[in-house]
Every structure is written in C-alpha cells, then in structure tokens.
Amino acid sequence: MKAVLRTVIRVLFKPLLAPWVPLAVQRRGTWLAGLLSKYPRDTESSKLDMNGVPSLRLHTAAAAADKAILLLHGGAYVLGGPASHGSLAAQLGQAAGAEAYLVDYRLAPEHPYPAALDDALAAYRWLLQHYQPGQIVIAGDSAGGNLALATTIAIRDSGLPQPAALALISPWLDLTHGGETIGTRAQRDPMLNAAWLDACAKLHAGGVPLADPRISPLFGELKGLPPMMIHVGSEEILLSDAERLAQRAEAAGVEVSLHCFDGLWHDFQLHAGQLAEADASIAELGEFMRKKTTAAS
Fold it and tell me: How far apart are CA 228 and CA 166, in angstroms?
C-alpha cells in the first residue's frame, strides 16, 4: 500500500501543486482527494461558529466531553478545509479521546496574513469559553503546523492561558526555505516542490518579509511554550523545518519530541485507516495528547 500511495501521489497530485496550475484547479483537486480519506466509524460532524470563524466539530465515540483538539489544516495557506482535513481531525480526536474542532480559516491570496492567525486566535478564545486551557491541544499539519506554532506564540505573548500541548505534523515553518532538505530531498519528495511553496509563501505573507517570525515561526522566541510533539517523513523537503524546530525548542527549554518516519512523505497521516505507518503516527500523537491533557487536569 505504501508503494501504491507514493506512486499515486507522485503521478497525480504532485503535478497539481505547481505555480502554473490555476489555484481554482488546485483547490478542486484537494477537495476531490479528501473524498478518498477514511473517517473513524460512527464519526459525527456538525458545523459551528467559533467567534465568527466557520468551523467543523467532529465527535467520535472515544471523545471525552471535557477535552478538545483545535486542528489547523494544511494546504500552504491557499488550499484545504473541512473537506480535505475532516478525516484527519476525526482520527486525531479519536486517538486523543477528545472533541476535534477543525477551523475553516481564511485563505490567501484573497486573505493574506494576518487573516489566518486572527481566525485561529478567535477560535481558540471560543474554546476557552467552553474548556479549561489544560484540556485543549492545538494541532496542525504542514501550513497548519506553521499556524499552530504561530498561534501558540501569539497566545503566550498576549497573556492568554496556554493550551496543554502542541502537536505538529510535517510543519512548514521556514518560508524562506533555508533548510538543507529543500535541496537534498527535492527528487525524493513525492508530493512537494520548492517552486510551488515559494509562490504560496508570497501569497500568504503579502508584504511581510518571509523571514519575519510572524510568517516563519521557526525564527520566533520559543521559550515558555507548552510541550510539543513533531512528526515528519524522511523523504520530504520540509524535514529540516521539523529538525530545526526540535533543536531550537530544546535549546529554549521546551519539552519536545521528534519522530521521523523512515521512507514516508509529507502529511502521510492523511492516509490514516489506509496506511499502517499513518495509523501508528496518529496513535502516538493521540497518546501524547491524552497524557498532556490528563496531566494538566
């Protein structure tokens, strides 16, 4: 199954993620890909408004009513939403024994920075009205990992109560693309290419420099952040982002763990229920989130 999925992604999906492909086509392709994802059995979903931000609540039988995951989806800040990431939110919620909330934040280029960050903070404030902060985990994949880290930094800096933990999947953290694996994994990565990410980075940043920590939170101050777990694939061009975050977080005194899955690609957790390694990653992230929310409780 791993070989089949890698080939399908390289042949059908990677050509779609290119600067010359119209964004409308990319968004449609991402929506269609989401139809192939697998939800946990008996998942219940409902739409809701989180302080003006449209969101999706995903409930599974394993969910405890007093625990919540705020999932910020990937898509390079220009793609994605409930259709593409609803299954990932539900899988994480089931593994963590928590209600999952998927934020349909505003996308670039229609809404560049700080629109996504504003929406994520509004959604987090909504959760604080319904949950204890120690029972909330912020999670994100790819650009959602960027947004999750940026949101947690903004929460700390604004004096809001911090979440119990941070769970990051293949985070895209350095939008200047200064990591070594941008080049060394260019041919091995079956999904992403640097040219597309460069274009998306500029659309998201608007006029803000890409090295600004608000755009590239890898360069932000990490001291005082909650415990974090990072999962990444060995074949992806963003591997260096995850590795450098783990190094900088540890140096800042943050509890951090990094798991690199050998032979896997960007965001492979989207194949949970179809790929054994994806299931293993979700299970490990879920156990981490359970422990951190229970300890906080």
Answer: 5
Tokens of 158: 């604004």
Please name the helix (run of DSSP H) or strand (run of DSSP E) that holds residue 230, with its range, or none: strand 228-233
Tens of pLDDT, residue by residue over 168-216, are 999 999 999 999 999 999 999 999 999 999 999 999 999 999 999 999 9
Which phi and psi (to 5°) does residue 22 adopt? -55, 140
Binning pLDDT at 50, 70 and 90, where does residue 297 land?
low
Domains assigned to the chain: 2-296 (3.40.50.1820)
Active-site residue identified among 59, 73, 266, 271: 266
Q: Which residue has the tokens 């609540």?
A: 57
DSSP state of 78: T
Residue 104: what residue type? Answer: D
pLDDT of 15-60, one tens digit each? 999 999 999 999 999 998 888 889 998 899 999 999 999 999 999 9
Residue in 100, 72, 245, 217 with CA at minimum distance from that of residue 156: 217
Q: Of the listed 170, 236, 277, 281, which one is catalytic?
A: 236
Q: Is the pLDDT of residue 217 over 80?
A: yes
**Is 142 noted as a catalytic residue in this protein?**
yes
Query: Is 236 designated active site?
Result: yes
Q: Which of 37, 84, 87, 142 is catalytic?
A: 142
Q: What angle do CA 137, 289, 267 make, to 5 degrees?
A: 80
